[in-house]
Amino acid sequence: MKDDVLIQLAVSFGLGLLLGLQRERTERSIAGIRTFPLIALFGTICAHLAQAFGGWILASGLISLAGLVVWANVAKFKAGDVDTGITTEVTALLIFALGAYIAAGHMGAAVVVGGAVALVLHYKKPGLLIRY
């Protein structure tokens, strides 16, 4: 059992690194190579704690993460950095969910989804804005 948890944490960390590395290439991102692995681990640990103590822990973790994402965007806005994109924010919430999904025993599916997300994010040119 302990080895399973360690493997889950390692895979979660790896997926976070993958998505964090991709997000790092965007200059104005609120999270990158250090933050995404932490978010993934947070999701995995919250899911393990939820199995032992109740689902409210997982819900609280997700709400806390969403609050941090909002706070980071408010700070960016106050600093004069106006960015209307929400890709990094959605990716942060998704990597939390993938971390939880790994803890729920769906490691293969989480790896496939994480890899697909990394590909989708990679194939947009940085700085490409469509203005109307």
Explain the overall architecture.
This protein is mainly α and 132 residues long. The protein has one domain (2-122). The chain is built from 5 helices and no strands. The chain has helices at 2-24, 35-53, 56-78, 87-103, 107-122. It is globular, with a radius of gyration of 15 Å. The mean pLDDT is 88.
Keywords, please?
132 residues; mainly alpha; 5 helices; globular
Layout of secondary structure:
Elements: H1 2-24, H2 35-53, H3 56-78, H4 87-103, H5 107-122
Helix pairs in contact: 1-2, 1-4, 1-5, 2-3, 2-4, 3-4, 4-5
Reading the helices and strands in chain order gives: HHHHH
Beta content comes to under 5%
Q: How many E-type strands?
A: 0
Provide mean pLDDT, rounded.
88
Percent of residues in helices:
over 70%
Task: Give the uncertain stretches in residue-range form.
Answer: none
Number of helices: 5
Basic shape: globular
Oligomer: single chain
Largest sheet: none
What's the quick description here?
This protein is mainly α and 132 residues long. It contains 5 helices and no strands. It has one domain (2-122).
